[in-house]
Design brief:
mainly alpha
């Protein structure tokens, strides 16, 4: 459903948000290990999140990545848009180019409902909501 960049971006930002909530800064290496992503790929993802002011990179021996308090209100939809644009909300569920309301595929109308529900969920969920719903044991899913 999401591109690999988006999947790893979501994993990374959720992990950083959780660690920030625990007053920890996290290194590139730690993030890469915790989300089970190649370090070079993780670096590019973090660079994109930093350039878009979602995460903050702190330089130096005691540095790392954190999320500023006001950025905890970042909606998951914003992160998805950053990596994948709005393609998840458009197009055919079967990947057909000629599928539209005038010439629908067999899944067209059902997929519209699912896509709308997904959009609503992504727009209503913030990093803060996710972090507040998690406990320390919930991070095991990152390495799947």
């Amino acid at each position: 459903m999401f591109s690999k960049s988006c999947e790893y971006g979501l994993r990374a930002i959720i992990y950083i948000a959780q660690q920030t909530n625990l007053n920890n800064k996290v290194s590139l290496m730690t993030i890469s290990e915790e989300i089970n992503s190649p370090q070079a790929f993780t670096a590019k993802i973090l660079q994109q999140l930093t350039r878009n002011n979602i995460v903050r990179s702190i330089k130096g021996p005691h540095g790392g990545f954190v999320i500023e308090p006001e950025k905890m209100q970042t909606k998951i939809s914003e992160v998805v848009f950053l990596f994948d644009g709005d393609s998840i909300y458009n197009g055919c569920g079967l990947g057909l180019k000629q599928c539209d309301a005038n010439s629908p595929c067999p899944l067209h109308h059902k997929f519209i409902e699912i896509r709308n529900d997904l959009k609503t969920m992504l727009e209503k969920t913030t990093l803060e909501i996710l972090v507040n719903e998690m406990n320390d044991n919930d991070m095991v899913w990152l390495k799947r």
